[in-house]
Design brief:
This protein is α/β, with parallel strands linked by helices. The protein has one domain: Alpha-Beta Complex (Spore Coat Polysaccharide Biosynthesis Protein SpsA, Chain A). It is built from seven helices and 13 strands. Strands 1, 2, 3, 4, 6, 7, 8, 9, 10, 11 and 12 form an eleven-stranded mixed β-sheet that branches. Strand 2, helix 2 and strand 3 form a beta-alpha-beta unit. The longest helix is centred in the C-terminal third of the chain and has 17 residues. It is globular and about 55 Å long.
């Protein structure tokens, strides 16, 4: 199994690779914990997608750290990596989105693979659950999965969050993902605010997507085909993005594929902006203090 890490956004939010500053007790990054958990869950390769301008910096700071632990490959997401027949709008500066990033790995991943964000902490249980399911998909096609985090385990103490709230059928297969842009706990109850400013309750354990997916290689073929459809409709829209949920929802709605929603007890947290750093540092210190992770994370 391969772990595919979406890291092409590194630098755009922080400038350079500042988010690779250590937040763990011994200077570990959030990504270090993901690699550690993935290796222990049975993943055998890691592929990073980055922007070409960060290649040298990334190799020095990241690849050199992992290459003695697990085989590493790098692919690149660039604005002009488009199918034949499509030309980049010169006014576009925004990346094409997460599913375009996934598509960049079509030539190097030939086995079941997981997709994660570089700067999110997912938890060891999530990697184990995902790995166990991916192993069962070997040799299959059109059968995917995602980790469904319990909503109560993804809230922020700093304020409202946006989450993709998942709907599933009786067999726990995904039927839809509804983006709720304002979710917070009010008087002990988790609620979301609708477009009219009214609040509605949500279940504590409602499954939400934190961009932790499991696919088989046929997903690349579907993604390549649908990207052309997307571009035909959006080539001149400089803000349109080709997101993973957009692709997944398309495959579900037309009956091409199914996506199992896997429950996890893990608590998610992440560094979206620099102001999130102190809380992340405290949480990782606690995980080290209670023995969940060794310190240092990787032995020299």
């Amino acid at each position: 199994m391969t772990l595919y890490v979406l890291a092409a956004g590194m630098g755009s939010r922080y400038g350079g690779l500042k988010q690779l500053d250590g937040v763990g007790p011994n200077g570990e990054t959030i990504m270090d914990y993901s690699i550690y958990d993935a290796v222990n869950a049975g993943f055998g390769k890691v592929v990073f997608v980055i922007r070409g301008i960060f290649e040298q910096d990334f190799k020095e700071k990241i690849v050199s750290k992992y290459e003695q632990i697990i085989p590493v490959e790098i692919v690149f997401q660039e604005l002009d990596k488009l199918p034949e027949g499509f030309a980049l709008n010169p006014e576009r500066t925004k990346p094409w989105g997460t599913n375009h990033a996934v598509l960049m790995a079509k030539d190097v991943i030939k086995e079941p693979f997981a997709v994660i964000n570089a700067d999110d902490f997912y938890g060891r249980e999530s990697f184990k659950v995902l790995a166990d399911y991916l192993i069962s998909l070997t040799g299959k096609s059109n059968d995917y999965c995602m980790i469904g985090y319990r909503l109560c385990n993804t809230l922020s103490e700093s304020g409202a969050v946006a989450r993709g709230v998942c709907e599933t059928n009786a067999e726990e297969f995904l039927t839809s993902v509804v983006e709720r842009t304002h979710i917070e706990r009010i008087d002990g109850v988790i609620k979301y605010k609708d477009e009219n400013g009214e609040f509605h309750p949500l279940p504590e354990n409602a499954p939400v997507s934190m961009n932790m997916w499991g696919f088989t290689p046929d997903y690349f073929t579907h993604s390549e085909e649908f990207f052309k459809v997307f571009l035909n409709e959006n080539i001149d829209n400089v803000k349109a993005e080709y997101f993973i949920p957009l692709m997944v929802n398309h495959l579900i709605q037309n009956g091409t594929a199914r996506v199992k929603v896997l429950d996890t007890p893990s608590k998610w947290f992440g560094v979206t902006y620099a102001a999130d750093r102190p809380e992340v540092v405290a949480k990782l210190q606690t995980l080290a203090d209670n023995g969940t992770y060794p310190t240092p994370l990787f032995k020299k």
